[in-house]
């Protein structure tokens, strides 16, 4: 987006979580490069309403940014600051001088609040304390900053405006006016501070976040079609973003997804503080659900899934408070859910996809999706979901296995009402004992078998199931027939208990059963 242009409608600044993604109306900068905590680059923003494409610069940030500056012989750190605790305002960067140290990092901006200098907190420091610390921080200075979405009013004072008086004789400066000499010049210089301390007649530039908006990434959703878009929980949208190559687009998609995932882990940790040990959130995140409909390409809707305690939750919007968990669209008993990676639907035709660059699809991008999985629930109903990255698919598969096995061991047993030839019975799957069938009236145990004795099963898809057990002594196969109201749920429960039993004696079993494990390393 060129400087002075307005962002697309609906993309204006809004309050949100502190970690996010910013789009700034700045020219392309060839020195932009990935940073361990951030990522900066150029993209094209397509405004669907007007059809106009904007040149923009993107910055992906975490909650706080830590940037190392090398003090230059001419220009010093190349920035000025305002503010201080004595005026109940933060110490903020008020100027960035083009071509000097702060500008060269590409990661510092006018309006950034300075939190730490070389690991020393300045959040409660006075203006002069911050000045002194920066002045004597050495040739290599590490600053931790946070961008303030609402610019402090004192940053907007025009140059030359009247302000609080300062004692020039003492060499101090007003907290509401720039203190730049100690940052822009020789650190041993003690003359009164002034932006004119830079080389005489040198043009002065300010690097500002103009025409900017921020998209908070906490529980944000990424939508991908012929480009990709980030949609924040509070309704802010990044707009459709395209990059100069498919590889660059996939790199950005992975980077944004990684930051969203880190924030989701933080949200899970906070949610689990309010949950009992047996009701912890194991995994949660956005997926796309393919709805059942006639036609070659049925509609796809975003859903938010969560594996928590004994249940799989399906939401239309993410749960942000304890009370939101009771507002789920649907919940399923994990022990009665069958998770399956849909190998033949990976990157299938029925999921929205297209090139991620400018007309070129990178077939070598191994981690790019969509990657599909299904969950089969009671009465044989199946729901199909997709995620954008192979690593996400591997995380969902591992989360389902881990949560299901934990729930099996926690509950210990499941009992289902059933019948055979008009007799009311109770069928029990027990993690320690195996299978048993009890007469509902007399409570007599009709038969009991260990897990190892189950040799096969079959069902009619409606209500009746046949279980084949081998007698330990005679080695003969015994067939037991039962009828259930929901035979699918019972069979899934049997599968969950069997898998958990094997995993309890063979730790490598979970890994050997993973269909999506190969994507973990590429995530």
From TrEMBL:
Segments of this protein annotated with the region Disordered: 1-38, 155-201
Alphabetized PROSITE patterns for the sequence: PDZ
Keyword Cytoplasm on entry: yes
Subcellular location per the Swiss-Prot or TrEMBL entry: Cytoplasm, Cytoskeleton
Record carries keyword Metal-binding: no
GO function terms (MF aspect): actin binding; structural molecule activity
Chief place where the protein resides: cytoplasm
Classification via SUPFAM superfamilies: PDZ domain-like (SSF50156), PH domain-like (SSF50729)
Annotated coiled-coil segments of the chain: none
InterPro entries for the chain: PDZ, PDZ_sf, Syntrophin, Syntrophin_4th
Biased composition (Polar residues): 190-200
Gene Ontology cellular component annotations, sorted alphabetically: cytoskeleton; syntrophin complex
Entry keyword set: Actin-binding, Cytoplasm, Cytoskeleton
Biased composition annotated in UniProt, kind: Low complexity: 166-175
Entry-linked Pfam families: PDZ, Syntrophin_4th
UniProt record similarity statement: Belongs to the syntrophin family.
Protein name as catalogued: Syntrophin gamma 2
Organism expressing this protein natively: Rousettus aegyptiacus (Egyptian fruit bat)
């Amino acid at each position: 987006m060129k400087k002075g242009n307005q962002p697309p409608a609906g993309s204006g600044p809004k309050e949100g979580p502190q970690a996010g993604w910013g789009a700034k109306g700045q020219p392309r900068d060839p020195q932009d490069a990935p940073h361990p905590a951030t990522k900066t680059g150029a993209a094209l923003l397509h405004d669907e309403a007007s059809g106009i494409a904007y040149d923009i610069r993107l910055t992906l940030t975490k909650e706080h940014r830590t940037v190392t500056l090398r003090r230059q012989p001419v220009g010093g750190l190349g920035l000025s600051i305002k503010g201080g605790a004595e005026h109940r305002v933060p110490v903020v960067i008020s100027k960035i001088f083009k071509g000097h140290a702060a500008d060269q990092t590409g990661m510092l901006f006018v309006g950034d609040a300075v939190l730490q200098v070389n690991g020393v907190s300045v959040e409660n420091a006075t203006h002069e304390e911050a000045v002194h610390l920066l002045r004597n921080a050495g040739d290599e200075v590490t600053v931790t900053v946070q961008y303030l979405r609402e610019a402090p009013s004192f940053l907007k004072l025009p140059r030359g405006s009247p302000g609080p008086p300062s004692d020039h004789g003492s060499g101090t400066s007003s907290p509401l006016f720039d203190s730049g000499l100690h940052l822009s010049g020789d650190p041993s210089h003690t003359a009164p501070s002034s932006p004119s301390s830079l080389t005489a007649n040198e043009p002065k530039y300010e690097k500002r976040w103009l025409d900017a908006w921020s998209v908070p990434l906490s529980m944000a959703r990424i939508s991908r079609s012929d480009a990709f878009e980030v949609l924040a929980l509070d309704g802010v949208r990044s707009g459709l973003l395209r990059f100069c190559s498919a590889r660059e687009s996939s790199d950005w998609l992975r980077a944004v997804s990684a930051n969203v995932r880190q924030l989701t882990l933080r949200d899970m940790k906070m949610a689990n503080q309010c949950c009992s040990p047996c009701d912890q959130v194991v995994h949660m995140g956005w997926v796309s659900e393919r709805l059942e409909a006639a036609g070659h390409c049925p509609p796809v809707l975003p859903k938010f899934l969560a594996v928590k305690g004994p249940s799989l939750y399906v939401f239309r919007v993410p749960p942000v408070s304890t009370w939101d968990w009771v507002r789920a669209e649907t919940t399923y008993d994990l022990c009665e859910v069958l998770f399956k990676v849909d190998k033949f639907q990976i990157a299938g035709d029925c999921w929205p996809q297209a090139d991620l660059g400018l007309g070129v699809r990178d077939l070598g991008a191994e981690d790019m999706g969509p990657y599909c999985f299904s969950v089969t629930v009671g009465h044989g109903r199946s729901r199909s979901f997709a995620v954008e990255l192979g690593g996400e698919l591997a995380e969902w598969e591992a989360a389902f296995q881990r949560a299901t096995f934990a729930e099996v061991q926690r509950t210990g047993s499941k009992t289902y009402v059933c019948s055979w030839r008009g007799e009311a019975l109770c069928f029990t799957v027990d993690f320690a004992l195996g299978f048993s069938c009890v007469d509902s009236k007399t409570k007599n145990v009709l038969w009991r078998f260990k897990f190892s004795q189950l040799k096969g099963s079959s069902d009619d898809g409606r209500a009746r199931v046949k279980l084949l057990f081998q007698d330990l002594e005679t080695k003969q196969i015994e067939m037991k027939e039962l009828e259930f109201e929901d035979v699918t749920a019972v069979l899934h429960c049997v599968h969950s208990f069997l898998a958990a039993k094997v995993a309890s004696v063979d730790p490598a079993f979970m890994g050997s059963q993973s269909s999506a494990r190969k994507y973990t390393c590429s995530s």
